[in-house]
Amino acid sequence: MVPRKDATMRVVVPFATEMPKTRLGGVLTDAERDAFARAMLGDVLSALDATGHDPELLATGPVESDVAVTVDELPRRAAITMQPTEPVPAVVRRR
């Protein structure tokens, strides 16, 4: 189901700018992992745009992007799991 353009949902995409995809370190070089992570990020942002969302990027360092970018030097996992300071609406769909 594609959301309507007027649907309101905040979509935050986390992205680590340093040492991305560390589990692939045995098969890809640092530069290859960085390129792979950025390609995946592009795919995710394109998919969100195609579904009518305006994603925000939460990155651990500067990133060139067409979407809003917030740089937070907290480790990615800490930034993602922080408790919100305001109520966060959620939608749960049952199949």
Task: Write a brief structural summary.
By secondary structure, the protein is an alpha/beta fold.
Question: How would you portray this structure in words?
Answer:
- The protein is built from two helices and three strands, in the order βαββα.
- The protein is an alpha/beta fold.
- The chain has a domain at 12-75: Spore Coat Polysaccharide Biosynthesis Protein SpsA, Chain A, CATH 3.90.550.10.
- Strands 1-2-3 form a three-stranded parallel beta sheet.
- Strand 1, helix 1 and strand 2 (56-59) form a beta-alpha-beta unit.
- It starts with 11 loop residues before the first strand and ends in a 14-residue tail after the last helix.
- The mean pLDDT is 79.
